[in-house]
Amino acid sequence: MDQTLSSARQNRSASRTIRHCEAVAVVSAPPAALFARLDDQTRLGGHMEKSSMMMGGGRMTYEFDEGRGQVVGSHIRMGGSAFGLKLFVDEVVTEREPPRRKVWRTAGKQRLIVMDAYEMGFEIEPKDGGSRLKVWIDYELGRGLGRWLPALAGMYARWCVGRMVEDAVAVFGKAGERA
Protein backbone atom coordinates (compact mmCIF):
# COMPACT_ATOMS: atom_id res chain seq x y z
CA MET A 1 0.00 0.00 0.00
CA ASP A 2 1.34 3.43 -0.95
CA GLN A 3 0.40 6.41 1.16
CA THR A 4 1.25 9.96 0.23
CA LEU A 5 0.56 13.26 1.90
CA SER A 6 1.20 16.01 -0.58
CA SER A 7 2.36 19.39 0.49
CA ALA A 8 -0.54 21.73 1.12
CA ARG A 9 -2.03 23.02 -2.09
CA GLN A 10 -4.02 26.17 -2.62
CA ASN A 11 -7.65 25.76 -3.60
CA ARG A 12 -8.13 27.94 -6.70
CA SER A 13 -11.73 28.80 -5.84
CA ALA A 14 -11.08 30.03 -2.30
CA SER A 15 -8.33 31.31 -0.08
CA ARG A 16 -8.22 28.25 2.18
CA THR A 17 -5.46 25.66 2.13
CA ILE A 18 -6.54 22.15 1.19
CA ARG A 19 -4.39 19.17 2.16
CA HIS A 20 -4.47 15.81 0.39
CA CYS A 21 -3.82 12.25 1.52
CA GLU A 22 -4.37 8.95 -0.30
CA ALA A 23 -3.78 5.23 0.05
CA VAL A 24 -3.55 2.78 -2.86
CA ALA A 25 -3.48 -1.02 -3.23
CA VAL A 26 -4.23 -3.60 -5.92
CA VAL A 27 -7.02 -5.75 -4.49
CA SER A 28 -7.90 -9.29 -5.60
CA ALA A 29 -11.53 -8.54 -6.50
CA PRO A 30 -13.33 -7.46 -9.65
CA PRO A 31 -14.32 -3.75 -9.65
CA ALA A 32 -18.06 -4.46 -9.22
CA ALA A 33 -17.55 -6.62 -6.11
CA LEU A 34 -15.11 -4.13 -4.57
CA PHE A 35 -17.43 -1.20 -5.30
CA ALA A 36 -20.40 -3.04 -3.77
CA ARG A 37 -18.49 -3.54 -0.51
CA LEU A 38 -17.13 0.00 -0.32
CA ASP A 39 -20.48 1.55 -1.24
CA ASP A 40 -21.76 0.37 2.17
CA GLN A 41 -20.49 3.14 4.46
CA THR A 42 -20.65 0.94 7.56
CA ARG A 43 -18.13 -1.40 5.90
CA LEU A 44 -15.98 1.34 4.37
CA GLY A 45 -15.83 3.31 7.60
CA GLY A 46 -16.09 0.37 10.00
CA HIS A 47 -12.88 1.48 11.71
CA MET A 48 -14.75 4.57 12.97
CA GLU A 49 -17.30 2.44 14.85
CA LYS A 50 -14.63 0.73 16.94
CA SER A 51 -12.90 2.30 19.90
CA SER A 52 -9.27 2.96 19.01
CA MET A 53 -6.22 4.94 20.04
CA MET A 54 -6.65 7.18 16.97
CA MET A 55 -10.17 7.99 18.18
CA GLY A 56 -8.90 8.70 21.70
CA GLY A 57 -10.86 5.74 23.03
CA GLY A 58 -14.06 7.00 21.44
CA ARG A 59 -16.01 5.85 18.42
CA MET A 60 -18.61 7.07 15.93
CA THR A 61 -22.02 5.74 14.98
CA TYR A 62 -23.84 6.17 11.67
CA GLU A 63 -27.27 7.52 10.86
CA PHE A 64 -28.53 7.32 7.27
CA ASP A 65 -31.29 8.88 5.25
CA GLU A 66 -33.45 6.72 2.95
CA GLY A 67 -30.63 6.65 0.33
CA ARG A 68 -28.24 5.03 2.87
CA GLY A 69 -25.33 6.96 1.33
CA GLN A 70 -25.74 5.04 -1.91
CA VAL A 71 -27.30 7.70 -4.16
CA VAL A 72 -26.12 11.19 -5.11
CA GLY A 73 -27.57 13.68 -2.62
CA SER A 74 -27.89 11.10 0.16
CA HIS A 75 -26.73 12.14 3.64
CA ILE A 76 -24.57 10.14 6.03
CA ARG A 77 -24.43 11.48 9.59
CA MET A 78 -21.90 10.38 12.15
CA GLY A 79 -21.92 11.19 15.83
CA GLY A 80 -19.80 10.07 18.73
CA SER A 81 -16.73 11.11 20.63
CA ALA A 82 -12.95 11.23 20.51
CA PHE A 83 -10.67 12.13 23.41
CA GLY A 84 -13.78 12.79 25.51
CA LEU A 85 -15.11 15.43 23.10
CA LYS A 86 -18.45 15.11 21.31
CA LEU A 87 -18.18 14.91 17.52
CA PHE A 88 -20.67 15.30 14.70
CA VAL A 89 -20.37 15.35 10.92
CA ASP A 90 -22.92 15.37 8.12
CA GLU A 91 -21.67 14.08 4.76
CA VAL A 92 -23.43 14.20 1.40
CA VAL A 93 -22.70 11.93 -1.57
CA THR A 94 -21.75 14.13 -4.54
CA GLU A 95 -20.66 11.55 -7.13
CA ARG A 96 -21.44 7.87 -7.58
CA GLU A 97 -20.36 5.99 -10.71
CA PRO A 98 -20.49 2.22 -10.07
CA PRO A 99 -18.17 0.37 -10.27
CA ARG A 100 -15.59 3.13 -10.73
CA ARG A 101 -15.90 6.07 -8.34
CA LYS A 102 -17.70 7.54 -5.34
CA VAL A 103 -17.20 10.94 -3.69
CA TRP A 104 -18.76 12.54 -0.59
CA ARG A 105 -18.10 15.73 1.35
CA THR A 106 -19.04 17.48 4.54
CA ALA A 107 -22.28 19.45 4.51
CA GLY A 108 -23.11 22.26 6.87
CA LYS A 109 -21.37 22.77 10.17
CA GLN A 110 -19.51 19.83 11.64
CA ARG A 111 -17.93 19.31 15.04
CA LEU A 112 -14.53 17.69 14.50
CA ILE A 113 -11.17 18.03 16.26
CA VAL A 114 -8.24 18.03 13.83
CA MET A 115 -10.04 18.55 10.50
CA ASP A 116 -12.71 20.91 9.30
CA ALA A 117 -14.48 20.54 5.95
CA TYR A 118 -13.35 17.66 3.75
CA GLU A 119 -14.09 15.77 0.57
CA MET A 120 -13.38 12.05 0.40
CA GLY A 121 -13.73 9.35 -2.15
CA PHE A 122 -12.51 6.19 -3.77
CA GLU A 123 -11.61 5.23 -7.30
CA ILE A 124 -11.45 1.70 -8.70
CA GLU A 125 -9.96 0.50 -11.98
CA PRO A 126 -9.29 -3.02 -13.29
CA LYS A 127 -5.67 -4.10 -12.83
CA ASP A 128 -3.71 -7.37 -12.78
CA GLY A 129 -6.80 -9.58 -12.58
CA GLY A 130 -8.15 -7.51 -9.69
CA SER A 131 -8.75 -3.84 -9.00
CA ARG A 132 -6.54 -0.86 -8.24
CA LEU A 133 -8.17 0.92 -5.29
CA LYS A 134 -7.35 4.49 -4.35
CA VAL A 135 -9.00 6.08 -1.31
CA TRP A 136 -8.34 9.79 -0.81
CA ILE A 137 -9.26 12.78 1.31
CA ASP A 138 -8.87 16.52 0.66
CA TYR A 139 -9.29 18.43 3.91
CA GLU A 140 -8.97 21.74 5.68
CA LEU A 141 -7.28 21.93 9.05
CA GLY A 142 -9.59 22.09 12.04
CA ARG A 143 -10.15 25.29 13.93
CA GLY A 144 -8.58 23.94 17.12
CA LEU A 145 -5.85 21.33 17.42
CA GLY A 146 -5.60 20.79 13.67
CA ARG A 147 -4.72 24.44 13.10
CA TRP A 148 -2.07 24.44 15.83
CA LEU A 149 -0.74 20.93 15.21
CA PRO A 150 -1.26 20.19 11.50
CA ALA A 151 0.77 16.97 11.79
CA LEU A 152 -2.13 15.51 13.83
CA ALA A 153 -4.53 16.10 10.94
CA GLY A 154 -2.08 14.45 8.53
CA MET A 155 -1.60 11.50 10.85
CA TYR A 156 -5.37 11.06 11.21
CA ALA A 157 -5.89 11.36 7.41
CA ARG A 158 -3.24 8.67 6.75
CA TRP A 159 -4.81 6.39 9.37
CA CYS A 160 -8.32 6.81 7.97
CA VAL A 161 -7.61 6.25 4.26
CA GLY A 162 -5.07 3.57 5.14
CA ARG A 163 -7.62 1.64 7.21
CA MET A 164 -10.17 1.77 4.39
CA VAL A 165 -7.67 0.27 1.94
CA GLU A 166 -6.31 -2.24 4.47
CA ASP A 167 -9.84 -3.41 5.29
CA ALA A 168 -10.56 -4.03 1.58
CA VAL A 169 -7.31 -6.00 1.25
CA ALA A 170 -8.19 -8.00 4.38
CA VAL A 171 -11.54 -9.01 2.86
CA PHE A 172 -10.46 -9.72 -0.73
CA GLY A 173 -6.69 -10.18 -0.53
CA LYS A 174 -4.00 -8.42 -2.48
CA ALA A 175 -3.93 -9.09 -6.24
CA GLY A 176 -1.16 -11.48 -7.16
CA GLU A 177 -1.02 -13.14 -3.73
CA ARG A 178 -2.10 -16.73 -3.29
CA ALA A 179 -4.64 -17.50 -0.60
Descriptive account of the structure:
This protein is α+β, with helices and mostly antiparallel strands and 179 residues long. It has a single domain, classed as START domain (Alpha-D-Glucose-1,6-Bisphosphate, Chain A, domain 4, 2-Layer Sandwich), CATH 3.30.530. It is 22% helix and 41% strand. Strands 1, 2, 3, 4, 5, 6, 7, 8 and 9 form a nine-stranded antiparallel beta sheet that branches. Strand 7 and strand 8 (115-127) form a beta hairpin. The longest helix is centred in the last third of the chain and has 23 residues, at 150-172. The chain is globular and about 45 Å long. The two termini are 18 Å apart.
- Give a quick account of the main beta sheet: strands, pairing sense, barrel closure: 9 strands, antiparallel
Structural class by SSE content: alpha+beta
User: Which series of helices and strands comes N to C?
Assistant: EEEHHEEEEEEHH
What is the CATH fold-level name? Answer: Alpha-D-Glucose-1,6-Bisphosphate, Chain A, domain 4
Q: Indicate the overall shape.
A: globular
